[in-house]
Design brief:
alpha/beta; FAD/NAD(P)-binding domain; 5-stranded parallel β-sheet; binds flavin-adenine dinucleotide
Length: about 350
């Protein structure tokens, strides 16, 4: 028998959609992704991007404080190990994601730890196939597979993630280690300038490292970078290495000139990668309308509809603008309500 709703993806958008769909008696099935080496390497393991970070200071309802008692009473036996790891400083990304997952399963969401690798939206009910070969039919589908930040691919980047290396200024810029210290942003587009501008509120100097002698950013954004006295643009340069130690985290970077092969070092406590994101939409094989950058298109203003009736999208997979946990969760709620109303209108 076909499912009412199948949800693909396990970040804040997917779990929120599941909580709403489950409470509306739609008995959702959620594919949370597979535990594979490929997913680990590209940062798309179950529980999504937030599970890759330490403190989450901006998710409403989770101020700094000792959550041990709450975690112990909320999580199932299987996930109590998180209580022992709790840092008593507020909520960590993995804690928040496990709490969301728990809330969704409390209401009866069935979770499958596997990737969806193929979809058929031509026939109705829709058909989905997982990596492990499971086939599911569903009257409606919510796609919440998120996006992943692009990194340069340096070993030192991997080593200092959560210890000075970040791909999100809004998420991490206000952390104490970045305050009144020199910071580095890599990139030359609009989002790199935005990140540098945002970080200039916290850092003493923000070095914007760009491989060419002119920014790719729009004129107005490029001007904003040049007018900001705290932004120091390092033209014709690429980041060759991130420097630091396990105790101190990032302490600096080594840049290489793109003009003459010379290198130089800069002191910095943070290195922010602003070289774009990749939405997790490859498995859709072009079966839904996408933007030039392969994000899903929302086709009705203020709704989560996609180009196929009955298929909805939520979170970073369709949103390359806000990219926050709370906005992803918000659109997950919208997608569940949109799916519920669509199913009701069809009598399904
Ligand atoms: C290091 C870091 C720190 C961050 N810190 C913050 C912060 O402090 N505050 C904040 O608000 N935001 C933060 N963000 C941004 C935030 O994590 C994202 O905006 C949010 O997680 C997006 O949620 P999502 O539900 O759209 O998808 P994601 O979190 O991207 O999760 C989607 C998940 O779905 C699964 N999936 C993908 N493809 C498939 C498939 N084919 N089949 C099955 N499953 C699949 C994968 O497990 C994937 O990870 C941070 C991001 C990063 C990378």
């Amino acid at each position: 028998m076909a499912e009412h709703v199948a949800i693909i993806g396990s970040g804040p958008a997917g779990w929120t959609a599941a909580i709403y769909a489950a409470r509306a008696s739609l008995k959702p099935i959620l594919f949370e992704g597979a535990v594979t080496e490929e997913n680990r390497l590209q940062g798309t393991m179950p529980l999504g991007q937030l599970a890759l970070t330490t403190e989450v200071e901006n998710y409403p309802g989770f101020p700094a404080g000792d959550l041990s008692g709450f975690l112990a009473s909320s999580l199932s036996e299987e996930h109590r190990w998180l209580v022992d790891m709790h840092q008593k400083e507020g909520c960590s990304g993995p804690e928040l994601m496990h709490l969301m997952r728990q809330q969704a399963t409390n209401f009866g969401t069935r979770v499958v730890t596997d990737d969806i690798v193929e979809v058929d939206f031509d026939a109705h009910p829709f058909r989905l196939r997982s990596l492990g070969g499971q086939e599911v039919e569903a009257h409606s589908v919510i796609i919440s597979t998120g996006a992943r930040a692009n990194y340069l691919g340096l070993d030192s980047e991997e080593r200092f993630k959560n210890n000075g290396v970040s791909a999100c200024a809004v998420c991490d810029g206000a952390l104490p280690r970045f305050r009144d210290k020199p910071l580095v942003v890599v990139g030359g587009g609009d989002s790199a300038v935005e990140e540098a501008d945002y970080l200039s509120k916290f850092g003493s100097t923000v070095y914007l490292v760009h491989r060419r002698d002119a920014l790719r950013a729009s004129k107005i954004m490029a001007q904003r970078a040049e007018d900001n006295p705290k932004i120091d643009i390092q033209w014709n340069s690429v980041l060759e290495e991130i420097l630091g130690s396990d105790e101190a985290g990032v302490t600096g970077v080594r840049l290489k000139s793109t003009v003459d092969d010379s290198t130089r070092e800069l002191e910095a406590t943070g290195a922010f990668m602003a070289i774009g994101h990749t939405p997790n939409t490859l498995f859709l094989n072009g079966k839904l309308a996408m933007t030039e950058k392969k994000y899903l298109k929302w086709t009705v203003p203020f709704r989560t509809n996609t180009s196929v009736e009955g298929v909805f999208a939520a979170g970073d997979v369709a949103d390359d603008y806000y990219r926050q946990a709370v906005t992803a969760a918000g659109s997950g709620c919208m997608a569940a309500l949109d799916a519920e109303r669509w199913l009701a209108a069809k009598g399904l």
